[in-house]
Structures are given as structure tokens and as C-alpha cells.
Amino acid sequence: MLLGSDYPLLSVFWSILFFTFFFLWIFITIQVVVDIFRSRDLKGWAKALWLLLLIVGPPFLGVLIYLIARGGKMHQHQIDAAKQQEEAFSEYVKQAGGGSNVADQLHKLSDLKDKGVITQGEFDAQKAKLLS
Q1: How far apart are CA 52 and CA 62, in angstroms?
Q2: Domain ranges in the chain?
Q3: In angstroms, what CA-CA distances link 38 with 27, 62, 66, 86?
Q4: pLDDT (tens digit, 9 = 90+) per residue, 11-57?
């Protein structure tokens, strides 16, 4: 007797569909909870009430109400977070790769000295400041 012979193909399909939607619901619920804590326009009590609705209320209803009421803001919060991460990464790269930035600044200082805008003493002071 085969191992799967007593479990029909349609039951396998429904089981896979059920588990897919179950894990999708868990993923969306986690995203909603993250958005509740991330949103700056909600204050403490509003966040607590949303979390209470998610925990105590019917499982799908709390997530559905949140997505209807604040779905657009949820998307905007994700965009804002991505922009902040990108800016932080860019700033880190600029700090980590400071060698080329210092070289550019030294070149500009040299041009200013050659044009007579700054004196040799000012050039040396700024150069020491950049190289330290």
C-alpha cells in the first residue's frame, strides 16, 4: 500500500492552499505590528488600542480593519524607512571612503591658494586640519 494513497489529490491542494494563506496572514500581521510601532502619527494609547484589536479581536478582522484604515500610511511608512536607510548608508559610505573627499578638498584649497584667495598660512592650516 502506498503512503499517500489514502489522502486524495484535492485534499493535498486544499492543505497547501490553507497553509499558504496561513503563512501569508502571519506575514501581514507581522508587517502590521511593525507599522504600528513605526508610525509616528500614532500616540501611545492609539498604538495600544490597535495592538489590543489585533490580539484580542477576531484574528483576520483586526488585520483587515488596519489595512483598510491605514493601508496607505503603512505604504508611506515603508517608503520613509527605506529612504532613511538609504541616506544612512550613503552617509556611511561617504565617511568610510573619506580619502577621495579629502583629496577633492585639498585640490580645491590648492586652487584657492593659486588664485590668491587664501594665503599660504591659511592653506597650510586647512591642509593640516583635513589630514588630521
Answers
A1: 9
A2: 9-71
A3: 16, 18, 14, 17
A4: 889 999 999 999 999 999 999 999 999 888 889 999 999 999 999 98
